[in-house]
Write a structure and sequence with these properties.
This protein has 76 residues and is of the alpha+beta class. It has one domain. 12% of the residues lie in helices and 18% in strands. A hairpin with a 6-residue loop joins strand 3 and strand 4. The longest helix has 5 residues. It starts with 6 loop residues before the first strand and ends in a 13-residue tail after the last helix. InterPro entries: GDCCVxC (IPR047677).
Length: 76
């Protein structure tokens, strides 16, 4: 099995600001506040977290072949 990538660059859909973040391995990150424009990002419909919607790399559970975080979204 391929190694899980833990870093993803999130791009804000409101202002285009990009920032590299380390993804949590124990839960999906449902909310993310852009540090530039303060927009509160939420996953797009059908995505489990902000990394799957706005990141360069999907979250660890999706990388491992799971459809999502398995119901462990805690709004980190």
């Amino acid at each position: 099995m391929a190694e899980v990538i833990l870093e993803s660059t999130i791009t804000c859909p409101e202002c285009g600001h990009q920032k590299m973040e380390v993804m949590p391995t124990n839960a999906c990150q449902y909310f993310y506040e852009c540090e530039a424009c303060k927009a509160l990002l939420k996953p797009k419909p059908g995505d489990c977290c902000v990394f799957c919607s706005y990141g360069t790399v999907a979250c660890p559970p999706v990388q491992q072949g799971l459809s999502s975080c398995g119901g462990e979204c805690h709004g980190l």
